[in-house]
Amino acid sequence: MSGELGKNLATVGKAAGVRVTQRGAQVRVAGEEAAVQLAVRVLEQLYGLAASGVAITGPDVEQAVRLLEAAPGSRLEDFHGDVVLVGARKRAIYPRTPTQKTYIHAFTDHDIVFGLGPAGTGKTYLAMAVAVAALLADKVKRIVLCRPAVEAGEKLGFLPGDLEEKVNPYLRPLHDALRDMVDEERGARLFQKGVIEVAPLAFMRGRTLSDSFIILDEAQNTTPEQMKMFLTRLGNGSRAAVTGDMSQVDLPRQQRSGLVEAVGVLADVPRIAMVHFTDRDVVRHPVVSDIVRAYDRGRAGEGRGQRS
Hints:
By secondary structure, the chain is α/β, with parallel strands linked by helices. It has helices at residues 5-16, 33-51, 58-70, 76-80, 98-109, 123-136, 163-181, 184-192, 224-231, 258-265, 286-307; strands spanning 19-23, 26-30, 85-86, 92-93, 112-116, 142-147, 196-200, 212-216, 239-244, 272-276. It folds into 2 domains: 2-80, no CATH class; 85-306, P-loop containing nucleotide triphosphate hydrolases (Rossmann fold), CATH 3.40.50.300.
């Protein structure tokens, strides 16, 4: 923290709701008792990480405050030490919440892992990090990334270009995440050789994928038939991640979500894990957590109004 000590102290103060000042080597924290205790825990643990050589950024500080507020007994070093992958630009990718930690460890003991919850919780990003780590360690020979091409306000037919160009906007988030994990030149080679493949879900029909790590993103927009088709593509030596937010279904109103059905049908199947994320696991801008909570409260209010 030494390089940006003043900035990070201010960030701790703002996130914890206290006033943090520094005079020489002394740091003073003032505010309500519970908030002061939280800020002190955060500062002590951040200083410990910095002393061990971990670079601390502003977002790291904000996440540390949220983590230690939600789980006071947690230790930041347990998360920073659980590195999934050191990606492009030497950036370490590691779990930032207890649920994220449970999620990445679920891939060790399960063939299929469902990551369920709101946007910004790292469901797809961490699954891709696990997949890339497995590829680099020669545990799988290929990564296949797919998602359903479901329109959310704009029809595919009105988008310019051929089929590949039409579906590319739906797959762009997967490309963006990969860019964080593999440098551009190496990533291009892996795509050219077919080691990493990005494709619409419809292209999976009829295939059997062996020795592969397969990720289905935005799975809430699959139909039950598509979900069953995807899950039965797994061949020997393959693992799969299925990620989605069951509150963000873009299917026609009368169409049941394949993800919703699968969560109920497969809950007790061995070697399948269901990991549920909440707004506490959001690791994007702090306002995203507030947005998720606000929408959840709104839906709950609508539900009460409909029942009354």
